[in-house]
Amino acid sequence: MEPITVTGVNFFCQENSKHHHTDEYELVKAEAPAPVLRRGESFLLGIDLDRTFDVEKDVIRISFGFGEKPTVILGTKSVTPVKPKHTHFPKDPHIWGVLLKENNGNSVILNIRIPPHVQVGVWNCSLITTIAGKRGMRKDYNVENDVYIIFNPWCKEDGVYMENEEERNEYVLNETGKIWTGTFKKPKGKHWIFGQFDEISLPAAVFLLEKSGLATAQRGNPIMVARAISAIINALDDDGLLEGRWDGDYSDGTSPFAWTGTGAILEQYLATNGTPVKYGQCWVYSAATVTVCRALGMPCRSTTNYVSAHDTNATLTVDKFFDIFGEKIEGGLEGAGNDSCWNFHVWNDVWMTRPDLPPGYGGWQVIDATPQEVSGTVMRCGPASIVAVKKGEIGFLYDTPFVFSEVNADVVHFQENDESDWGFSRISINQYHVGRMILTKRLGPTDDNGDNDYTDITDLFKNKEGSEAERLAVYNAVRGVPKAKHIYDIPGNEHQDVEFDLVDIETVPYGHKFNMQVRLENKSDAVRTVKIVMTASSVYYMGTTANDIKKTRGTLKLEPHQRETVRLEVFPKDYLNKLVDHFFVKLYAVADVEETKQVWSEEDDFNLTLPDIKITAPVKANAEDKVNIKFSFRNPLEIPLTQCSYTVEGPGINKKENHADVKPKETIVMSASFVAKKPGSKKIIVNFTSKEIHNAHGSTNIIIE
Questions:
Q1: DSSP string, 310-322
Q2: How many CB atoms lie within 10 A of CB 289?
Q3: pLDDT value at position 228?
Q4: 137 or 147: which carries more pLDDT confidence?
Q5: How does pLDDT run across 462-491, given as a tens digit for each residue?
Q6: Cα separation, 62 vs 81, whole angstroms
Q7: Is the peptide bond between 383 and the residue preceding it cis, with omega within 30 degrees of 0?
Q8: Of 3, 45, 247, 640, which residue is the least packed, with the fewest Cβ within 10 Å?
Q9: 13-17 contact pairs (CB < 8 A, 24+)
Q10: How far apart are CA 390 and CA 203, in angstroms?
């Protein structure tokens, strides 16, 4: 008697996908469907045979393997026999289980349970048939299908389990969202199509994980998978997905502002066999991270920290230096200090347990794919427990000190002083400037008519500024950083009888003038002579200076109890040729009082805002019908816009076209069309860029019936 021959298999892709919450993956619905399964769940597998299956004599073993050299010891291989008499899976949920569900003669249906800890990615499957009690007789059948196994937030035994259904819908299943940019004074949501269920997304995510170099056996650990993703999304070290650029010259690639979804980035990356895509900045890195994490089944959100510190010398402070004349010293002492405050910085939070940390430190963990600092020889960051960050527990893995500084560093100003032992003295310490607000998109649908769809999660990362708990967290962190201790031991100035206030500027429409103002009040009974320097500069959103726009220097005498306002008026002609991406402006004011040696400094920043793109489209349309949309944009400047282009992204449309120069104050009208294949609410995103203007955008929803 010959062993039975397997003639084919059926993964029941669509049926299994409903039980596994993977029915939205296009791979499942393709002409040649691929199974997308979640670990910790069971699935049905049909096997076609060349004769009737004899439960007494025929033996079928199911083998699943992961990676190039699967081994049972490392948990990357399983060989499980079909035992017809068994009616229940093994009690231990961490081993593969196989049950005979149906015996239909020349075909059988198996119920297979996947353990909740197995590696995520592509598994291969094979079947071995033998005759009971006979050695040396076997037949092998290798299944051609790639079997995708991913994380399972619905499974309590999985390290990414998320109990709340509304949160799962948002952080695992939502294909669109917003990335928050702008300023804490006026947050601006950038619409994004994550597209984690697109046919290309899961294969691309697996390819990136392979390329990351993460050991095969570790690809079931969400901690290590998240850490690997934070490294492979940027191109440094490993030719990862995105190459970054921040100097404004994107002529040999795509501007970071032009992307409206991750799909085009992944397509370009795979089409060029893993050549890094040009170009990304922090919000693009974050959006791509959302796509990859959600495609692999890991709950993930994009998070924006407004006024985000970049502490380059591990002092837990942002140190800025001014010369004796009040001019900022770029690069710090001898160019060695490059601490900065990003106007905003976008990273990601991923949800998981942390069995490597004490109880209570699981939940949301920060990972950051934007290349800032090396962590363990590789440009990556996290996962850092948000709970540890809030408490100042900087000794916990991974990269907690860096993330703590991002949200809670103090900004310290130093000025040249010949009487100081080291040539500088502290003139101010600002405990409130960093981590002004931390936002993520709220649960549920996006606000297409405004930006009221964010959730303020600042209190998850830090206690209220100035509170005792917040200061205790800072001092708790400082205790573990010897470099930081001396900064907090420096005494403050004793004579503070002139009060200064740099007036905040909320926002300014692009093309309008603005005033920088410092209010002074002499609180003493004597005359005070004040020397003051005021500077307005354009800055990259990472906080580094691009160009000086305008500055003033002067001396004024304040009579006893006199109030005065000093102004620096800035006109469009002063800044139009000096602005860089995002149109951020940094204001610095430095003053000293001659009679008392009191020294004061302050800084503020804001951005110039663009008009939105207006979109005209039907509210509803039918599937398979052609839908036409129009969109318009008005040039707000007195000069023409050059090197213009626009992108449109939505269901069945990914259009990028150049556009002619736009005259001063001219309104242009553009159009596009698409055909939606599936019903539901579909988002259309439009983005317009030029040499003079970046990131004008708009969006709308169309209901496909």
A1: E-SSSSSEEEEEE
A2: 32
A3: 97
A4: 147
A5: 988 777 777 767 766 766 565 555 555 444
A6: 6
A7: yes
A8: 247
A9: 15/44, 16/43, 16/44
A10: 36
Task: Give the integer Cα–Cα distance in Å for 266 and 194.
Answer: 11
- 74-86: b (≥16 Cβ within 10 Å) or e: ebbbbebebeeee
Residue 319 is among the residues annotated as catalytic for this protein:
no
Residues 393, 357: contact at Cβ < 8 Å?
A: no
Residue type, 171: Y
| From 21, 310, 345, 697, active-site residue | 345
| Tokens (6 digits) for 214 | 């993460």
Residue 288: its H or E element:
helix 282-295
Residue 457: how many other CB atoms lie within 10 Å: 18
Q: CA-based angle 523:528:529, to the nearest 5?
A: 145
Tokens coding 381: 């960051």
Which member of 339, 368, 399, 605 is catalytic? 368
Q: Does residue 368 carry a catalytic annotation?
A: yes
Confidence of residue 272 (pLDDT cuts 50, 70, 90): very high
* Active-site residue (options: 13, 282, 341, 644): 282
Phi, psi dihedrals of residue 458, rounded to the nearest 5°:
-55, -40
- Main-chain dihedrals φ then ψ at residue 207, nearest 5 degrees: -60, -45
The pTM of the full predicted model, rounded to 2 decimals, is 0.85
282 is known as an active-site residue: yes
Tokens found for residue 266 = 């992944």
Question: Measured between alpha carbons, how far is 626 from 619 in angstroms, rounded to an integer?
Answer: 14
**What angle separates helix 468-478 from helix 400-408, to the nearest 10 degrees?**
140
| Long-range contacts from 135-138, C-beta under 8 angstroms, 24+ separation | 137/2, 137/3, 138/3
Neighbour tally for 2: CB within 10 Å: 10
List, as own/partner pairs, every contact residues 28-36 make where C-beta atoms lie below 8 angstroms and the sequence separation is at least 24, other chains included: 30/199, 34/145, 34/146, 34/147, 34/148, 35/11, 35/145, 35/147, 35/148, 36/148, 36/150, 36/202
SS3 content of the chain, % helix, strand, coil (to 5): 15, 40, 45
Mean of all residue pLDDT scores within the chain: 90
